[in-house]
Amino acid sequence: MKLYQLIIIYFCLGFFLLFNSLYGAESVRGFKETLVLANSGNAEAQLSLGMMYEKGTGTPVNYFEAMKWFKKSAEQGLADAQYWVGMMHSSGPITQTDIPESIKWFKKAAEQGHTSAQNSLGYLYKGYETPQFFSNDIVSVLDYVQAYAYFNCAKAAGNDEAADNIDFLTSKMTPQQIAKGQKLSKVILERINKKK
User: Fold this and answer.
1) DSSP letters for 69-84
2) What pLDDT digit, counting tens, does each position of 16-36 carry?
3) Does residue 56 come out as left (phi exceeding 0), alpha (psi in the -120 to 50 range) or beta?
4) Which CATH fold would you assign to the domain 77-195?
């Protein structure tokens, strides 16, 4: 290997190590600052801290701590946090799948206009193609009318995935079910618009 090749390799390695140490230190500093804000009751900081624990940013991955901070934020009414509590209950790594609890938290977020929560509710109500991935609870919540209504709410807000889901779902529904789903989605959207 020639000298200039070694210099380039050492330069790149040095740059990588420097960048990695600075980025890692910044993540830890950001984690500590977020922890202080979260402990003071700041809902956005609690959500951020939950995400840091869930992703391992500035701290080791800890799903129990992530859920704790998501829930603190969700209880203050933050829709994004309510969505994440729903996600943790629907397929999270720390809890037994609890579809009714997941629906409860997704609904709280969906009623604030959170389109991902609306779409997730649609999935839960329509049932997944592979329900064994979830618990047997999924069978007890199958409801195409509810699924259509929540997909339709998400679609109205511009969620393209929800639009695709409605197309799939309508092939399995009767015209009466579709009409009920459309009516229900109007009721839900009216509730959302009143809260804004």
Assistant:
1) HHHHHHHTT-HHHHHH
2) 433 344 344 467 778 889 999
3) left
4) 1.25.40
